[in-house]
Each structure stands twice: as structure tokens, then as C-alpha cells.
Design brief:
alpha/beta; 12 strands; single chain; four-stranded antiparallel β-sheet; six-stranded mixed β-sheet; 257 residues
Length: 257
């Protein structure tokens, strides 16, 4: 199966540290990737680079569906890829429904008018995000957690083949964390979507991802299957504190001591 996203020879640095050196990976349809690392290691910077919001350094290659990312027209790329940032909660004076409908913009025809299919997909996205009953409410009146769910609804309405998610469940209560993680895992398994998300919780990562990229700092990385890489030894090195694993009815749970 051809990769949705290919990264080759990526060297990336922040003002404080080297994020990765000579990083290569392939994200294939049906895979859910987790990017884990300590605060400030560069997870958000990496996601923005993968999305084309930051230029990739010379000598590196990022390909979407086999084509260099920079060759994609903006509208065509938005039909194939969506990014959820930590700080992109909608702030326009629109209703909840109108805000979520913005996700359909890359798919609209010449006159830019949504059709019944666009409306149905938007309503479905709001239902998944738990906001269907608030669809006529002003988006600016939402709480922080509701605004985050609205941002998720917008990219679900966008319906790309690749989702890049920066801490998608931040500010959400446990019910919606699980609900959205399960939905994205279902999109990968049932519809062949490719998911890449920055996470801070290794328990969520081992439960809801299939592959991981660990950013250890200083350019060091670990790439592999989630169950092979998410071990107490790797996580202790990743976070600089002792991590232990315990078995629960739903699988492994990680904690510190």
C-alpha cells in the first residue's frame, strides 16, 4: 500500500534544541501515529512542518501521496490533509454550525455554495463532537472545551485522508477524550484514513495508536510499532523520570513513581 505521507532525511531544530536528525518515516492508510516527547521538544513544530506551514529544510523531503508537498495547490492539499493546532480554536462571529461548515470549503464547487452532502457531513461532525444540540449557538459563547470540540468538528467535516492533530483532546473531559480517540481510530480502521497526533499521555498512545515516533531531545528519535516502543525503559528515557507499567482490563497503563 502506497504511503499517504513520506518523510525522508528531515533535520529539524528549534531555538532551544535539535528536534530530529535524518528522520525518515512512512505513514500509510489505516495507520494511527503518535508523536510523544517532553514539553518543548518540538512536537508542534514537527507537525507544522509536516503540514507545510513551516518550510522543510533543504535536503529533506516531505511527500503527500507521492508528490512533494510544496507542489500541491493549497486547495487541493486541503482536500487531502487537515491540521488541528493547539491554538486554532475558531474565533469568528459565526454559529457553531457555520463554523464547522468552514471545513467543507476546500470541497465546494465554482460558486462556493454547500450542497446537501456538505450539510449532512457537517451535521455528522457536530454529532461526533457532541455539539449537534448547540449548532445554532454563537461559537464565541462556547466554553474552552466546547471550542476545542468545535475545532475537531471542523476538520472532521473537512474529511481529508490525512489528519495531523496537535494534542487533540486537550481541555476535554475524560468522556470526550475517549470518544474522539475511538473515533479517529475507527476512521483509520474502517475508512483507511491516516492519523498523526502529538500526545502527552503514553497510556492513550498505546491504546489508540499503531505506530509511534518518540522525540528524545538532541535530535534522537525512536520509530516503530507502539507496543514495541512504548515500554517503561523507553518512556523513562523519554521523560527523564521513572515510568512503570501496570495491567488493566483495557490494557497497559503507565505511571510514574
Amino acid at each position: 500500500m502506497n504511503p499517504t505521507l513520506e518523510v525522508a532525511h528531515l533535520d529539524l531544530a528549534s531555538p532551544h534544541d535539535v528536534i530530529c536528525e535524518n528522520l525518515s518515516l512512512c505513514v500509510r492508510p489505516g495507520e494511527v501515529w503518535g508523536i510523544l516527547g517532553p514539553n518543548g521538544v518540538g512536537k508542534s513544530t514537527l507537525l507544522k512542518t509536516l503540514a507545510g506551514l513551516r518550510p522543510a529544510p533543504e535536503g529533506s523531503s516531505i511527500r503527500l501521496d507521492g508528490q512533494p508537498l510544496e507542489r500541491w495547490a493549497r486547495r487541493a492539499r486541503a482536500r487531502r490533509m487537515a491540521i488541528l493546532l493547539q491554538d486554532n480554536e475558531p474565533g469568528l462571529p459565526l454559529t457553531v454550525f457555520e463554523t464547522a461548515l468552514l471545513g467543507r470549503h476546500p470541497h465546494l464547487g465554482l460558486w462556493g455554495r454547500p450542497h446537501h452532502g456538505d450539510l449532512r457531513r457537517t451535521l455528522s461532525a457536530l454529532r461526533i463532537a457532541g455539539l449537534l444540540g448547540q449548532r445554532q449557538s454563537p461559537s464565541q459563547a462556547l466554553s474552552a472545551g466546547e471550542s476545542r470540540r468545535l475545532s475537531v468538528a471542523l476538520i472532521l467535516a473537512q474529511d481529508p485522508d490525512l489528519y495531523l492533530l496537535d494534542e487533540p483532546t486537550t481541555q476535554l473531559d475524560l468522556h470526550y477524550q475517549r470518544r474522539l480517540f475511538e473515533h479517529f481510530l475507527g476512521l483509520a480502521r474502517k475508512r483507511g484514513k491516516a492519523i498523526v497526533m502529538a500526545l502527552h499521555d503514553p497510556t492513550a498512545a498505546i491504546r489508540f495508536t499503531t505506530r509511534v515516533l518518540l522525540l528524545l531531545g538532541g535530535g534522537r528519535t525512536v520509530v516503530g510499532d507502539s507496543r514495541d516502543c512504548l515500554t517503561p525503559e523507553h518512556l523513562t528515557a523519554l521523560y527523564g523520570t521513572d515510568v512503570v507499567a501496570a495491567h488493566s482490563p483495557r490494557g497497559l497503563v503507565f505511571d510514574v513513581f
